[in-house]
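Researcher: We plan to redesign the surface later, but first we want a full-length starting point. Tokens attached.
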């Protein structure tokens, strides 16, 4: 477990170091769902585009703090977890770790990872 956390932290540090500075970037475009009773209702929704050309729709909720991630027709609810920097949401199989406009998206317990950014 400690080795895996070290690997994740190291990967995130490399990813964040390779990203362009976000200062002065426009605020991400977001939509707020109208409260239709779906899992995404009532939260702030953003679209992320990833380096593997996938698109993620992510809805952030405050009470309780969680996100709903939609990808390829599948919806995953991730609780917020402890993060040294940025915000991290994980169920130990899927992780979405954000800082500013950029994110690291991991699936299969960290075996598959890709970098994502809020779509313009």
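Model: Full-length starting sequence:
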């Amino acid at each position: 477990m400690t080795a895996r956390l070290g690997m994740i932290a190291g990967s995130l540090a490399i990813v964040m170091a390779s990203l362009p500075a976000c200062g002065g970037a426009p605020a991400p475009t977001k939509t707020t769902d109208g409260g239709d009773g779906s899992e995404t209702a009532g939260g702030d929704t953003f679209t992320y585009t990833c380096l593997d050309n996938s698109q993620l729709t992510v809805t952030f909720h405050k009470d309780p703090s969680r996100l709903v991630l939609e990808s390829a027709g599948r919806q995953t609810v991730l609780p917020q977890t402890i993060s040294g920097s940025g915000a991290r949401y994980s169920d130990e199989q899927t992780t979405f770790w954000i800082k500013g406009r950029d994110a690291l998206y991991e699936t299969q317990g960290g075996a598959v990872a890709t970098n994502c950014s809020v779509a313009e």
